[in-house]
Amino acid sequence: MTNNTPPWDEEYDVVIIGSGFAGLSAAIEAKQAGAKTIVLEKMRIPGGNSAISGGLLAVANSELQRQEGIIDSPELMLDDMMQAGMQLNHKELARMVAEQSATVLNWTIDTLGVKYKESLNHLGGHSVPRTYITDTSTGSGIIQPLLAKCRELEITVQMKTMLNQLLSDTTGRIDGVEVRCDYLFPQQDSGQLKRIRARKAVIMATGGFGRDINFRMTQDPRLDKSIDSTNQMGATAEGLLSALRVGATPIHLSWIQLGPWASFHEKGWGVGSMFTLLAGFPYGIMVDANTGKRFVNELSDRKLRTDAMLYHDRIPVAIVDSLGVIKATTLDKCLKQGVVKAFSSIEELAAADNIPLPALRETLERYHLSLARGRDGEFGKQLSNDLKPIENPPFYSIRLLPKVHHCMGGVQINERAQVLSISNQQPIPGLYAAGEITGGIHGSSRLGSNAIVDCLVFGRIAGQQAAVEQL
Amino acid sequence: MTNNTPPWDEEYDVVIIGSGFAGLSAAIEAKQAGAKTIVLEKMRIPGGNSAISGGLLAVANSELQRQEGIIDSPELMLDDMMQAGMQLNHKELARMVAEQSATVLNWTIDTLGVKYKESLNHLGGHSVPRTYITDTSTGSGIIQPLLAKCRELEITVQMKTMLNQLLSDTTGRIDGVEVRCDYLFPQQDSGQLKRIRARKAVIMATGGFGRDINFRMTQDPRLDKSIDSTNQMGATAEGLLSALRVGATPIHLSWIQLGPWASFHEKGWGVGSMFTLLAGFPYGIMVDANTGKRFVNELSDRKLRTDAMLYHDRIPVAIVDSLGVIKATTLDKCLKQGVVKAFSSIEELAAADNIPLPALRETLERYHLSLARGRDGEFGKQLSNDLKPIENPPFYSIRLLPKVHHCMGGVQINERAQVLSISNQQPIPGLYAAGEITGGIHGSSRLGSNAIVDCLVFGRIAGQQAAVEQL
């Protein structure tokens, strides 16, 4: 602090911005390593996007894979990540996510007491089923145990506290934050300014900018206000911008992912996304209602799917039958809200969704032939052993609409979660980051269920490293 | 200036960093508008990448198009830019390039006395032939007249002067630069520090970072030192980083373009690139030497072509005959340096390049059939009326290798070439940018011959606007 600057209002060792998976796991590790730690969250409730996510974790070499006889490895998971990411991934960081996925799963079970369902899911772009899901089918199933652990460790998680700017000392070390307390999102000037010292480090865990229409349009002008997002309203860019203003290196900002599974008939993430993720895509088919034909591998990477859905004026509809919805945890809500419709026959479904019936029948026949052969010659969908022909009523359909879901880009970090300076590619002293605010790990496209693992792996590393930051 | 800062060593109204197309055209406009102007260039000679470029300008609705009966419009050129750019382009800026292309061409002829060849070229990704080429077939054919105009207007273009940092006053306005004079590239600490005041504005015209291996790898880890570049050695990132450090908004940094036309048998841009651009691709075909087959539209966008060339272990070879090389200005040099080889028959060519002869013969027959039909059913190449069968010896071949060529990404500007702040998307007072340091105009992929037009259009705007910057 120079002579002219005002005194600190509060002092901690480690100050964490954001209370999602990355922020809370960082807080737990920092506190357990002996650091006086606080978590600051701008919204009224904790958890951010993490809390409303699907609670899906991709894990290589897991206990459930052993039980189900599925052969997997961190190398295979890394290959899947690199292929989806168009090889733009920072490979050494991606490798850490794959290699530590099993460890971090066990941490959530052993240390946090998180509960998972007993069977795996096969998500798009993954070579094998490797995705755990919390027993509540939401990220809240991990956020609540993280918050409980924070209470147990007496870590304050302070709501309605907005980061205004990162502060640095005369040597360039980040030594605190200026925040607005009693901030009422989204009223920019609400609350009172306070200066909070971070004796060791600040950890940025502020998430992505999927709801920041102005900023996302600088990177991809197509993503204007007409495009919906699955994110919570607080997924805005100001945390990222604060980091860039102190010299963080921006990476891959223009790679903004749309999710292929959200419903046309509701706003945001809604209840339909999980239905499509767990039933419509793995156990059903997606057709263009104009033609009745499939047009893309329903389990391919998200970018391939959303590109295919957005072009050619397609009307994407996923179709599945009663055997395919067994894992669809949100089915009842979907039916109640009209997001998914049920029909006693394919004829009825085709009539209701305006799909040409002969073409749809032919599409189903071809798909069933592929199932019989064990190989989808047309689109290369990975056909699990438990797939059955779509012929058991009731039949279900969901009309889909791609929505902004995840920001692959962000600030560059190293293996210690230190933020790298644009000036010299060296760590900015006192500044760490983890989770969706970071860029590079997923390259051009993040695979489904890889975000939570990423957040937990690098959140924990950031907390551990920040606690022992050399001054 | 605050009390603590040292006095200025020199004072100007407008300080321009970089002496390529953008910098020199900015200088001419600023000086003509009455501003005391200086151009600072870090290298020993002026012109940067501009001087070694091919001297190609895409112009919509040009005099040569009227003479040749080619129907074109700024709208069509804009459509081509947006399609190549995957619609990521900042459309309002791209539109300005297309709409002002004819005006800026006339400016180079009327004001600078630039001379062009009398016929148009058809470059990849353009719907119609619209590309002018200087009579020397290099960018030097424009750089030399720009330098002559600067001398006439008594604008100093000062070599060996390296930007160290942008300086700002207490309000955040950019008010000057710290530079190293007598700088000897690439010795980072050479030269003496000086502070040069910019009473009205600084214009960043520092080009791309295609030769900056460290920085380009942060954005695309594949582009390591094993990948060559067509750029001059001074195409490094420090100018861009200086702008980002004062809060410029980064756009599309991970979109780095490789050029598909450079030779496998020489370093850098060399003499082969222009041969492929003017003969091999428009008048010949490209085959994979492993198979003897074509694999991509030789006139498609650069990204499509380089992706196709890099995958599947292809050995790309372009083949053209004596009628096809009429516009190939570098043919003699290519033959002398062994970059292009000449053969009296297709049999000899196939033997020398290890191409299976029956497959190559079949490929040629199919291509000639397409010419007869006027339609390339296989790859959709636009077949101009002047294309003839490849059957007139001597035959020529060139083995190709994609090389880093252009950085689509950079800082965000508005229609006045003002650099926009990451904090609020408003102009940073006193800071302008033009040319390859800017991002957004070309989206994910710049079309060939669109860079010079972009540099000249926004260079001139930056100079005009900087000269009347309101203090």
Short note summarizing the structure:
With about 475 residues, chain A is an alpha+beta fold.
Description of the structure:
The structure is a homodimer of 471-residue chains. By secondary structure, chain A is α+β, with helices and mostly antiparallel strands. Chain A has two domains: 10-210 and 406-467, FAD/NAD(P)-binding domain, CATH 3.50.50.60; 261-401, Flavocytochrome C3, Chain A, domain 1 (Alpha-Beta Complex). Chain A is 32% helix and 20% strand. Chain A has helices at 21-32, 48-52, 63-68, 74-84, 91-110, 140-152, 213-219, 238-245, 272-283, 302-310, 331-336, 346-352, 357-373, 451-467, and strands at residues 10-17, 37-40, 56-58, 131-133, 156-158, 162-168, 174-181, 192-204, 250-251, 256-259, 285-288, 293-294, 316-321, 340-343, 395-399, 403-407, 410-411, 418-420, 427-433. In chain A, helix 5 crosses helix 14 (451-467). The longest helix of chain A is centred in the first third of the chain and has 20 residues, at 91-110. Chain A is elongated. The mean pLDDT of chain A is 95. The interface between A and B is medium-sized, with 30 and 30 residues.
Question: What attributes characterize this protein structure?
Answer:
20% strand, homodimer, 471 residues, 32% helix, eight-stranded mixed β-sheet
Topology of helices and strands:
The structure is a homodimer of 471-residue chains.
Chain A: E1 10-17, H1 21-32, E2 37-40, H2 48-52, E3 56-58, H3 63-68, H4 74-84, H5 91-110, E4 131-133, H6 140-152, E5 156-158, E6 162-168, E7 174-181, E8 192-204, H7 213-219, H8 238-245, E9 250-251, E10 256-259, H9 272-283, E11 285-288, E12 293-294, H10 302-310, E13 316-321, H11 331-336, E14 340-343, H12 346-352, H13 357-373, E15 395-399, E16 403-407, E17 410-411, E18 418-420, E19 427-433, H14 451-467
Parallel strand pairs in A: 1-2, 1-8, 2-5, 8-19
Antiparallel strand pairs in A: 3-4, 6-7, 7-8, 9-17, 10-16, 11-12, 11-13, 13-15, 14-15, 18-19
